[in-house]
Amino acid sequence: MQDAANIRPLTALRFFAAMWVVLFHYWPKLDVGFTPTLVEKGYLGVELFFTLSGFILCHVYLSAFGEGRFKYGDFLWNRLARVYPLHLATLLGMIALGVGAGAAGFAVDAGILSWESLPANILLLQAWGLAPEAAFNHPSWSISAEWFAYLTFPVSAWAAWKLRSRPWLFTGLVVAAITALYAAFQQLSGFSLTQATINWGALRIVPCFMLGCAMHALWRSGAVRSLSAAALGAAFCGAGMLIAAAAGAPDVVSILGFGGLILCLAGLAQHGSGFASQPAFVYLGEISYSTYMICVPWKIIFVNAAAKVLNLPTEKLPLGLWIIFLVGVVPLSAVSYHLIEKPARARMKLWADSWRARRHAAAIA
C-alpha cells in the first residue's frame, strides 16, 4: 500500500487538471476553424483542482482538527507557503512584462496593468469581488479562491468531522446542496457559477471543496471495497466526466464525476495499485501548480514573439509551432518549480521553524 500521506494517483491527476486549463487557454491560438467541446470545457479543470483540495486537506488535517491538535496559524502559514511565492513571482513578472512592452512601443491591454486591482491581487482578495478588473496573471483568481477555502477551513473541517461516521449522509447532503446552488446561481445571475472568476470566484470553490471533503469521508469509511471496484469506478467516472464535458452536459454532471474519480483513484492506492504512481506521473503532478500559474505569461510571450518574428497576419499559430508552444509549458513549469516554487516554500517553512524555536526559547528562559 502506498504511503497514506502521499496518494500518488491524485498527485498525477493534478497535471491532467492543469493541462486541461492550458488547452482551454491555448486552443484559440491554433490556426484551425473549430474548437472541440471538451476543450471549451477546459475551465472545469479548476473545479477538479478545487475538489482535490477538499480531499487532500481533509486527508492531511482533519484528524488533527477533530482531536484538538490543529493549529490554525501554522495551517495558514503552510498553505501560504504553498501558493503565495509563485503567485507573487508571476504577479511581478506580469507587471514587468506589461511595463516593458509598453516602454518598447507594444500595445498592452489596459486590463493587464490595472493598478486599481493591485492591492486585491497582492492580498489574494481578487476573487472576492474586490478587484475592478481581471488584471495581471488572471489564473491567480483561483488562488484567491483557494485562500478563501483555507481561511474558512475550520468550518469545512467541523462539518466533515461531525459527519465522518455517516459518510453517505454527508455525501448526499453535499450533492443536494451542489445541485441546488448551481441551479439557484444560474437563475439569479444569468451565468453559471463555473464561469465566475473575480466576481463570485470565492463562492465557486465552496461546492467543489465540500465535495472533496465528502469523498474523503467515503474513502476513509472503506466505501471502495476492493481493487476491482476501484478500477471499475475510476474508469467509469473518468470516462463519464469526459463524455459529459465533450457532450456539453451541464457542468455539475462533470463535477460530480470528478468526485467519483478522486474517490476511486484514492481507492486504487488504498488497495495497493501502482496506477499513475510512477515517478514521471507524480513529478508532473508536483509541477502542475507552476504549469497553471505560468501558462498565461508564457502564452503572451510566445504568441506575441512568434507573430512579430514570423510576420503572422493574426496571432493564430500553425500546428507545428502551436505544438512547440503547448509542449514548452512543461519544461518551463519544471524551471519555475525548482527555481521559485519549491525553494521559496522551503524558505518560508524554515522561517516558521525559526520563529517557533525562538518563542520556545523565550518561554523557557
What does this 3D model show about the protein?
The chain is an all-alpha fold and 365 residues long. It has one domain (8-355). Helix content is 72%, strand content 0%. It has helices at 8-26, 37-40, 44-66, 72-103, 118-122, 141-151, 153-162, 167-189, 201-220, 227-246, 251-270, 279-286, 288-309, 319-364. It is globular and about 65 Å long. The N and C termini lie far apart (45 Å). 42% of the residues are buried.
Sheet-strand content, in percent, reads under 5%
How far the N terminus sits from the C terminus, by CA atoms, comes to 45 Å
Order of helices and strands: HHHHHHHHHHHHHH
Number of domains: 1
Instruction: Output the radius of gyration.
Output: 21 Å
Q: What overall geometry do the principal axes of the alpha carbons give?
A: globular
What is the typical, i.e. mean, pLDDT?
93
Q: Summarize the main sheet.
A: none
- Counting DSSP E segments of at least 2 residues, the number of strands comes to 0
Task: From the structure above, extract its key features.
365 residues, disordered N terminus
Write the layout of secondary structure elements.
Elements: H1 8-26, H2 37-40, H3 44-66, H4 72-103, H5 118-122, H6 141-151, H7 153-162, H8 167-189, H9 201-220, H10 227-246, H11 251-270, H12 279-286, H13 288-309, H14 319-364
Quick description:
It is built from 14 helices and no strands. With 365 residues, it is mainly α.
